[in-house]
Backbone:
């Protein structure tokens, strides 16, 4: 034969589906950093220059990266750090400390984490320090090179920066920014926050030590861009092992993003949040419904995934309550309606429940006071009700004021879905809302 006939490999459908799930899960769960953050070239250049001045030239800096969730703040920083560490000098000398306001909730925990990340536990040992400033100064001093002439540059990344402003006296922020303003050691402080008004949270002494450099990420994608991103995330690459399957899959994805019901679901998500992480969660739920019997994402899958994403956690908790607990919730809602949202206590709820019992001849709902108290406490543990004032713990439990944390629609939805809910309770609930 003068020409070799190359046949395309056609894999078994099960193998293709497994490969699709592996590729897309990797893509949706482990986001690859782009070569250059799209639309953020100026911000990338600015931040890279700032950090280079610290890592290579030993110049201290502080900067805030501000933008809504999902705007790409963390991705921008990761891209900059990746590019920065391509410089040999930065790679050799730069130390990084990553703190998060959700995890390091006070200065003691933060200091412990700084010590751990700088691998200075052995140096600190059993030493006792008077203040946070002395502690930090000792740590930075311990990082000096053998000749003790200069300290290694340290990058402090404070994620959820605004939460550090709630620490007592803002000691951590004050000391880090103070070091970045002085010649003690080359330090870069990078804060990441969603709050545009974050500077208003800072004390005067902290604000005066901050450089007031801010990098704003205010990306606002259109719905067309959002749809294009959905299609990109679900499409298979050109080098997929079975060309025919890849073509069919990509065609089905194109059909999906043009289907009216699917577009309506995606529009709802887009209106709710433009965060691409939320979109990835939606697409992961869709992907979990792909199988050998149904080797494509259907609009119905998107609808079901959306229902799971938007499912009401509190309404779901209500579905699992006992009949007594459900009765107490209805009594509370009745009190809310009568007293226009004023707080209530257990005694008032019990009295309201008694009114319902007086209308019923059967005794199946007659519960002892300790049982009702236990049910009431369980509702508080589930955070369906909460105390009006935590300082009121000294008040007798029956008279402690509470607020109901679920609304009319959530209670009605729970009653509709409640397995074998007695008719008289449903009728009482309906009368409570009339």
Residues:
């Amino acid at each position: 034969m003068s020409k070799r006939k190359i046949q395309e490999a056609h894999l078994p459908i099960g193998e293709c589906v497994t490969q699709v799930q592996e590729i897309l899960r990797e893509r949706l769960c482990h986001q690859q950093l782009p070569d250059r953050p799209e639309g953020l070239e100026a911000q990338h250049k600015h931040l890279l220059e700032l950090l280079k001045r610290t890592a290579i030239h030993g110049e201290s800096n502080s900067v805030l990266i501000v933008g809504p969730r999902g705007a790409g703040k963390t991705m921008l920083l990761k891209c900059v750090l990746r590019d920065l560490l391509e410089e040999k000098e930065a790679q050799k000398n730069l130390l990084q400390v990553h703190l998060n306001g959700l995890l390091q909730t006070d200065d003691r925990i933060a200091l412990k984490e700084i010590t751990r990340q700088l691998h200075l536990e052995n140096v600190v040992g059993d030493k006792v320090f008077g203040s946070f400033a002395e502690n930090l100064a000792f740590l930075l001093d311990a990082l000096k090179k053998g000749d003790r002439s200069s300290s290694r540059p340290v990058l402090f990344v404070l994620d959820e920066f605004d939460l550090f402003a709630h620490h007592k006296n803002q000691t951590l922020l004050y000391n880090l920014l103070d070091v970045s303003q002085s010649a003690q050691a080359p330090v870069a402080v990078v804060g990441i926050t969603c709050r545009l008004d974050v500077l208003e949270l800072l004390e005067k002494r902290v604000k005066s030590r901050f450089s007031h450099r801010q990098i704003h990420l205010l990306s606002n994608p259109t719905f067309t861009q959002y749809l294009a991103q959905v299609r990109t995330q679900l499409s298979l690459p050109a080098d997929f092992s079975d060309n025919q399957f890849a073509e069919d899959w990509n065609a089905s994805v194109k059909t999906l993003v043009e289907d009216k019901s699917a577009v309506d679901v995606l529009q709802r998500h887009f209106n709710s949040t433009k965060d691409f992480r939320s979109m990835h969660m939606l697409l992961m739920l869709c992907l979990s419904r792909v199988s050998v019997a149904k080797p494509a994402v259907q609009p119905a899958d998107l609808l079901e995934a959306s229902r799971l994403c938007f499912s009401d956690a509190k309404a779901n908790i209500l579905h699992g309550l006992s009949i007594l607990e459900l009765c107490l919730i209805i009594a509370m809602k009745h009190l809310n309606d009568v007293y226009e949202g004023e707080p209530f206590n257990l005694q008032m709820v019990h009295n309201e429940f008694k009114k319902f019992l007086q209308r019923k001849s059967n005794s199946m709902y007659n519960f002892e006071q300790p049982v009702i108290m236990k049910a009431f406490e369980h509702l508080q543990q589930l955070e369906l009700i909460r105390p009006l004032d935590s300082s009121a713990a000294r008040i007798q439990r029956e008279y402690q004021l509470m607020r109901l944390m679920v609304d009319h629609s959530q209670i009605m939805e729970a009653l509709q879905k409640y397995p074998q809910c007695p008719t008289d309770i449903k009728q009482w609930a309906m009368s409570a809302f009339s």
Summary: DSSP finds 21 helices and seven strands in the chain. The radius of gyration is 29 Å.
